[in-house]
Design a protein that fits this description.
The protein is built from eight helices and ten strands. By secondary structure, it is of the alpha/beta class. The strands form two sheets. Strands 1-4-5-3-6-2-7-8 form an eight-stranded mixed beta sheet, with helices on both faces. Strands 9-10 form a two-stranded antiparallel sheet.
Length: 238
């Protein structure tokens, strides 16, 4: 069905700071565990779940949320594939230091026969990078080939995470609402405007897209909290 290409695991592969690891602050790990729990309870039942992650603005951190949600789900032994559907400004391949081409656009356009999946041994997740930037990404994402891709992936995964572009910039995310079980909308501290968030919600409701939650991102907390006999500092990555 697909080609699984192992990523480079030598010393040059150094996941960036925002990706979950054993060095991630306790409070941040707990925040993603809470997000993971809320997502799983919001989408009950058996079978593969398709989760779309988007935002109102560029730079709200949706790609980091997508990546860390995928990692967090894999930590409880879920089979997860993360797809970079932002075919204008893709960042997933860069975050994980993996090859970006071939990717999603190459498969959807028929340039390649095998689904271009990269397996990350240390994170235990699979990634489909964006690939070449197409002249009309909206037409490509909304094509029947996307539906066919999802149907094939559902045979192998528990969760499919889609990193979509911001909704107020392009309509890619809502055009495929029929194959998405639930959306997460990322809202950034002191950046996201109420008007833009309301417009995002309006467009998603118009497309009958199911919003399962909002993720508040970019808040730095310097206070120390006492928990279970020890102090820890709560802070969130930007």
């Amino acid at each position: 069905m697909k080609k699984r290409e192992k990523s480079n695991t030598n010393s040059t592969f150094d996941p960036q700071k925002m990706l979950l690891s054993d060095k991630t602050p306790f409070s941040v790990q707990e925040a993603y565990k809470t997000l993971r729990t809320n997502v799983t309870f919001s989408l009950p039942g058996s079978g593969c779940k398709c989760i779309g992650v988007t935002s109102a603005h560029r730079g709200d951190g949706k790609s980091s949320i997508s990546a860390n949600l995928a990692i967090s789900l894999a930590q409880i032994n879920k089979r997860v594939v993360l797809i970079d559907c932002d075919l204008r400004l893709p960042t997933i391949a860069q975050k994980f230091r993996v090859r970006s081409i071939p990717g999603l656009s190459n498969w959807l356009s028929g340039d390649i026969d095998e689904i271009p999946i990269t397996h990350l041994e240390d994170k235990n997740i699979d990634i489909i990078p964006a690939g070449n930037l197409p002249p009309d990404s909206t037409a490509l994402i909304s094509s029947q080939e996307t539906i066919r891709l999802v149907e094939r992936l559902k045979e192998s995964y528990d969760y499919i995470i889609f990193d979509f572009p911001p909704i107020t910039i392009v309509s890619d995310a809502v055009l495929v609402s029929g194959i998405i079980d639930g959306y997460l909308v990322v809202v950034r501290h002191e950046k996201s405007e109420n008007q833009m968030i309301n417009e995002t919600i309006r467009q998603m409701r118009f497309a009958d897209a199911k919003i399962i939650g909002f993720v508040y991102n970019g808040l730095n907390v310097s206070k120390k909290y006492y928990k279970k006999g020890s102090y820890y500092k709560s802070e969130y990555y930007k």
